[in-house]
Amino acid sequence: MALEKLLDTKWRLFLPRVISMTIILVGMAAWQVYRERSYRREFIVQQLEIVADRIANGYEHKQDISNFLKFVDTYFTRSQFFGHLKLAVYDYSNWKTIDSTGNPIHLSLEEKDSIKKDISSGHEYTYHNLPTLDNGNYVYIAKSSINANNGRQVIIVAALSNDNMLNEFIEKSSNEIWIIVLALALVSFTAAYISARRFSRNITLLREIATRSANENDFMPGEDFSRDELGEIARQIVTLYNARTEALDRLEREHDIAMHAMEEKALQKRQLTNNINHELKTPIGVIKGYLDILADEQLDPETQRHFIEKARNHANRLVNLMQDVSAITRLEEGQNQISTERLDFHDIAYSFANDVAESGIMGNMKFIHEIPLGCFVRGNYNLLMAVIQNLAKNAANYSRGTECHLEAHAGDDNFYYFRFWDNGVGVSREHLEHIFERFYRIDSGRARKSGGTGLGLAIVYNTIIAHHGKIKASSHPATGGFMIEFSLPKWK
Asked: What CA–CA distance (Å, rounded) separates 51 from 259?
């Protein structure tokens, strides 16, 4: 466990592979060296056996072996290590030399006894490998044969000098094997290191991602992983992490937006409540005052009618205020629940123009509409008629102008675009951004005198928004009067 903590993933992957491959390669190499050495020793023994067999056959078949001994002496002297080959034929009974090449081989008594013991036991050959008891330090074999001429039993000894050349011949293959093993080890270790490094890179990246994700709130990991199974898993983990992070961020933003909206709505409700209380106090107080006077004082009929008329006007103003509050509340709470139908906005504007002409509700101000025929919109008739009425009443009460205009044109998208403007005094810039707020008045004294509730433009704003349109207030570029631009969706 302590070693695992000290080593990173790359080395924990690399070292077991290297150790395993080292054990396998060294074991295979040692086995191959052993087999190669055994094979070369067997080769030497086989060569000695061949020579001994040839001499034995010559004795058994009455052949002259002197020529063969000369051939052996001439042929094998050309070899690096067989050049020291010695052959000798001994009498079995007294170990006298019958034939030989080079100097006779001197065998010790122990060797002679060992050879005779093997021959008497029925062995074809008697092997004397390294080390030898002979003072000349030879590797030799002995074979028994019977001379066909005289029936005498002989012992044939083939000996090879155990010198450095012989050892070099036996050991030579092991050096080559170890060189090959070293080359294979280098290639295998390099491949194992590259593989471990490539494999552990994904794990290292994931660990870095986990560490940075825990410490850095705004960290977004990339996907620079290898193109393999682990890399694919790592990319999926990163994708899931990024998706989860984005979802959490989105939920947090939505939560903040929802909380802000709730706080804004609560603030608006408090403001609306306060404004309603403020707006209700004046007409109720006035009505109560007039009623108290009428009840307590003895007034002449003319004064009574005057006070009653004043109380009636404030009562009407109170009724209008409650109606407007109810309308704006329904619009805010049911924007997606209003019923819509196919409406020709030209007909709506034309109907309102006729009502203005017959009733004279706008006084001396003219209402001019320029709405094209077939201006079909998706909307609610009563709400859109209320929009025109509120805009026209606002212009008649506050603009001090002589005419107001309602214009429309079709856009390239799915909306009609409208402009309502007058040729009055207009509204200054500091008031435009607040013009659609509830109970907002540029001149509160004049507004109350005109009987307005302060909710007309707020109702217009909420009506357009409920119809999925847009609305803004500005000054007319030519006349400088007050102008409102809004859009309504086309009927499809």
From this structure: 108
Q: For 338-489, which CATH superfamily applies?
A: Histidine kinase-like ATPase, C-terminal domain (3.30.565.10)
Contact partners, residue 72, CB within 8 Å, separation at least 6? 51, 85, 87, 101
Using DSSP, state whether 318 is helix, strand or coil.
helix
d(CA 310, CA 315): 9
CATH 3.40.50.300 applies to domain 2-171: no
Q: Do the domains 2-171 and 223-333 sit in the same CATH topology, yes or no?
A: no
Residue range 223-333, CATH number: 1.10.287.130
Reduced to 3 states (helix: H, G, I; strand: E, B; else coil), residue 417 is strand
- What lies within 8 Å, CB to CB, of 277 at 6+ separation is none
How would you label 382-408 residue by residue, b for 16+ Cβ within 10 Å and e otherwise? ebbbbbbbbbbbbbbbbbebebbbbbb
Question: How far is residue 393's CA from residue 396's CA, in Å, rounded to a whole number?
Answer: 5
Q: What is the pLDDT of residue 234?
A: 67
What pLDDT is attached to residue 9?
66
Residues 119, 156: Cα–Cα separation, whole Å = 11
Per-residue pLDDT, averaged over 393-398, amounts to 88
Whether the CB-CB separation of 45 and 141 falls below 8 Å is answered with yes
Please say whether the beta carbons of 389 and 320 come within 8 A. Answer: no
Sequence spans of domains, the chain = 2-171, 223-333, 338-489
Kindly give the pairing relationship between strand 86-91 and strand 97-100. Answer: antiparallel
**What would the pLDDT profile of 80-106 be if each residue is shown by its tens digit?**
666 677 788 888 888 888 888 766 677
CA 371/CA 347 separation, integer angstroms: 9
User: pTM of the predicted model, to two decimals?
Assistant: 0.43
Pairing of strands 366-370, 403-410: parallel
Backbone dihedral region of 368: left (phi > 0), alpha (psi from -120 to 50 degrees) or beta? beta
Q: What is the pLDDT of residue 330?
A: 65
Strand ranges inside 304-428, DSSP E: 341-344, 366-370, 376-379, 403-410, 415-422
Percent of the chain with pLDDT over 90: 12
CA-closest candidate to residue 119, choices 96, 98, 143 = 143
Give the Cα separation of 371 and 285 in Å (integer). Answer: 44
Answer whether 417's CB lies under 8 Å from 472's CB. no
Quick check: 416 and 408 in contact, CB under 8 A?
A: yes
